[in-house]
Structures are given as C-alpha cells and as structure tokens.
Amino acid sequence: MDARDWDQRYAASEQVWSLGPNPFVAAELADLTPGAALDLACGEGRNAIWLAGRGWQVTAVDFSQVAVDRGRRTAGDLPISWQVGNALTVELPSVDLAVLAYLQLSPDERRTAVRRAFGVLRPGGTLFVVAHDSSNLTEGTGGPQDPTVLYTAEDVLADLAGGDLVVVRAERARRVVTAADEHGGATDSTAWDAVVRLIRR
C-alpha cells in the first residue's frame, strides 16, 4: 500500500487502531528515562502520544497525511513534532529512542528503515521494533497476508549485523487479540509478533 491507499483507509474510519499504545511498547519502554524519541511510521500516533505523555519529546513521522492530522488532533498540546514523510527518505533527528511499530516492508526497504532508525540513535539510545512475525501468517491471526513483508527478530538483528549494539530482547512473542481488537474475531485468538529491543553502544 502506498500513502494514498493509507490515506483512504484512515479516512474511511474514525479510528483505525486503538487509542492506547501497543502493549509491547508500553511494557518494554516504560522504564526508560525520557529524552528525545522518534516514532517512525507512527500511523495515528498512539505510541507517540503515550511517549509524550510520559515526558518524551517526540518526532512522529508517517507518510499518510490523514493519519498525521488525526494524531495531531488527538495529541492536543503534547510535545510532539508531527511530520509527513517516507520512512525510507525523510530526514530524521538525533534521538535517544527510535520506535518502529508494525512497519511491514519488503526486506530491502525494511533493512533501510531499520538501519536509518539505528543510525540516528545517540550513544546509549534504544531501538525498539515490533512487527507481525513471519510465523503469524500460518500460526496466528490478523496482519498482512503477504509473506514478503513479514519478518522475524533474527531478520532485524541481521539488518544491523556489524553494528555496535547490545541486544536486550529479540524473540517471537505472543499477543492476545480480543474480539474488540481491530483484527478481532468472535473469540480471543493469538497473533505472533517479532519483538526487538537493543541499545546502541
């Protein structure tokens, strides 16, 4: 999907994603000392808004103008710089935390995005990636049905091979999808995500 497709998807609904942060984002990043953060491919900004509410100065970037406008309205006066731009080409600020949540791209594009996000981290900064895992296609529920845009934690680490980093977490993780969730069905079900948290030395 390109930016126009996502604009149409966001415009067709009052709220595509939940207002609260992704559960892995909330669980993994709540203990970090606030600084400057980047939410790359932020969508409607749920993670950016959560981070800003915890004291982070956030730059939130997405290529959908509709999503960015919605995030800006929802955020109110929170300290977020909203930008419309492509994750592969937009100029990125130097930050203490970079978040890539469900940025599902082809391998070459994913590698570019991951390396760009890691590259703007200050020493000691955290990169956090959560994505629909490759195994979700056959073992889980929801998410893209195109295997070329699914990936694993190991893929993310391979993208950064040779980088000076410390891996805090890199694994496949279970996420419970409830009937009220955007991907929900009649009963609760399981989705499988790739979760990576690492620190740049």
From TrEMBL:
GO terms for biological process: methylation. The keyword Methyltransferase applies. Gene3D superfamilies: Vaccinia Virus protein VP39 (3.40.50.150). Residues 38-125 form the Methyltransferase domain. GO terms for molecular function: methyltransferase activity. The keyword Metal-binding does not apply. Keywords: Methyltransferase, Transferase. This is SAM-dependent methyltransferase. It comes from uncultured Nocardioidaceae bacterium.
